[in-house]
Amino acid sequence: MTWLITGGAGYIGAHVVRAMTEAGEQAVVYDDLSSGSAGRVPEGVPLVAGSTLDGARLARALAEHSVTGVVHLAAKKQVGESVDRPLHYYRENVEGLRVLLEAATAAGVASFVFSSSAAVYGMPDAARHGELVTEETPCAPMSPYGETKLAGEWLVRATGRATGLSTASLRYFNVAGAAGPELADAGVHNLIPMVFEKLSENASPRIFGDDYPTPDGTCVRDYIHVVDLAEAHVATARALQSSPGINLTFNIGRGEGVSVREMIDRINAITGYNRPPTVAPRRPGDPARVVASADRIAVELGWQAKYDIEDMITSAWEGWLRLHPEAAHT
């Protein structure tokens, strides 16, 4: 099959492209390059520069490359920004998805993998009681970002029912790490690179709120290595190919909660720094605790995460040092 991977020049997208091509699949990257980089796209993989809001551009790309499947990762994804700019997020994430699905179904695409998020859950009752979040846990997003991801799942599922498109929604938990320094997360929106940035500036990392109902008062999250996440896409894509018309929903996580304070302590230890964090006010839209149950994908597809927190931090730090060699601790 040939897969159009939207957002394939981004941090997660580049890892998915690599995993798909290494698995013998053909890939075409479709990216507006607003946050992605053409340098991340492997040699020999076509890159089409365009927005998912541009239906004509999408239609040409799908036809010219004889695309038979889509992996849709392109989206705006900052929780705090979505609170300030909800119209922008709904336009990019929901309308962009609608235009893409319209183009894909018109082109006869058979399979569609949607990049969703644990943000669809909000702060579920299961999490409040220390339980793992399953795919059956009721969804009650706490931010416009989470709302757009849940609306996206509905739209993907409804399109599959109406057209026979095989679909899957993958609910990512917190993604970290890198397959190699050249593919590391260059942004500073996720926790680990945010901490790296502060350490590089000889400043204290920040904790946004330490009064949550958790053991140490800071938010608890489930972290997944980006390489494991990319392999989950390969397993899902193959499942869609073998089961026409199917609809799948999977959590992609490790089932291990790590608090923000614990994560900062581990980063300090691995990088050689010793910068205690400072506490800032809570950010809007942040739930206290969300930790995945990934049992369903393990049972149905045989996928399990292989990498741990230390692997994530170490590989991410190697990538950070490649971009910021002055940050090396001496």
Index terms:
about 325 residues, alpha/beta, Rossmann fold, UDP-galactose 4-epimerase, domain 1, seven-stranded parallel beta sheet, four-stranded mixed beta sheet, about 40% helix, about 20% strand
Description:
41% of the residues lie in helices and 18% in strands. 49% of the residues are buried. It starts with a strand and ends in a 7-residue tail after the last helix. The protein contains 11 helices and 13 strands. It has 330 residues and is α/β, with parallel strands linked by helices.
CATH class of the largest domain: Alpha Beta
Structural class: alpha/beta
Number of domains: 2
At the fold tier of CATH, the topology name of the largest domain is Rossmann fold
Average pLDDT over all residues: 94
Give the N-terminus to C-terminus distance in angstroms: 49 Å
Q: What is the annotated CATH architecture of the largest domain?
A: 3-Layer(aba) Sandwich
Strand share of the residues?
15-25%
Shape: globular
CATH superfamily of the largest domain: NAD(P)-binding Rossmann-like Domain
Q: Major β-sheet, in short?
A: 7 strands, parallel
Strand ordering within the main sheet: 3-2-1-4-5-6-10
Amount of helix: 40-55%
Treating each run of at least 4 consecutive H or I residues as one helix, how many helices? 11
Q: Tell me how many strands there are.
A: 13
Radius of gyration: 19 Å
